[in-house]
Design goal:
Length: about 220
């Protein structure tokens, strides 16, 4: 309706003004919603800009850098999440330990260094499960060195070879796995296994014990 009135007025102006070649027509924007929104938005941004400029320098720095996030504190030696990867192991602090750590890392090196990271963790689980079992000695070193029946529970102990870890990288991996496991990592790979053997052999007890896992070249069993 408004546009129609403006157009009519323009036509009348043409009839009155002699010699005029054309008439300029201006459309009012007073009813244009986009113009009103634009004005309100500009006003809001201006007020916000003024408020920000009024803040102290310390507040402005805090807004620029964002909130400070403090990492959750974890007790030393208590891994939060186990990743069965060399990358994760090598990201941990350099391991150290006592005689039990020394026995466990050697057992992992000589019994499982050719296995995957998960496979080496699994062998560590077996050793520590034995330590926790009333049927076995109460320390890692005693479990690893246990004999019986004319043989050793862990073959490397009595194979006559030198127990020197000559390969640096496998020794480092075994040392880190031993540290993580002794620090209380969850044992979720072998479901309480107390025995394992390679796929190339089949000891007599393998037919009597329930198998709990198969990881790499090793099969794992739990003593009933």
């Amino acid at each position: 309706m408004r546009l129609h009135q403006i157009g009519t007025s323009a036509l009348l102006a043409l009839g009155v003004l002699s010699g005029a070649a054309f008439a300029e027509v201006t459309v009012s924007q007073s009813n244009d919603p986009t113009a009103l929104i634009g004005q309100q938005f500009a006003s809001l941004m201006g007020a916000e800009h003024s408020a920000v400029e009024a803040l102290p320098a310390a507040k402005l720095n805090a807004l620029a850098t964002g909130p400070k996030i403090t990492p959750k504190k974890v007790k030393p030696g208590q891994p939060v999440l186990i990743e069965y990867s060399a990358e994760w192991l090598m990201s941990l602090p350099a391991p150290t330990g006592d005689a039990q750590w020394e026995c466990l890392r050697k057992a992992l090196y000589f019994e499982a260094r050719g296995e995957s990271i998960a496979g080496q963790f699994a062998v560590a689980e077996v050793i520590l499960n034995r330590v926790d079992s009333p049927a076995y000695p109460k320390s890692v070193c005693a479990v690893v060195g246990q004999g019986g029946g004319g043989s050793c529970q862990f073959s490397y102990v009595c194979d006559g070879a030198s127990d020197v870890m000559r390969e640096a990288y496998p020794a480092e991996i075994a040392s880190r796995i031993a540290r993580v496991m002794l620090d209380g990592a969850p044992r979720t790979l072998t479901f309480g296994a107390t025995h394992f053997h390679t796929r190339a052999v089949r000891p007599g007890w393998a037919g009597r014990f329930p198998r709990t896992a198969a990881i790499g070249a090793h099969l794992f069993y739990r003593q009933p």
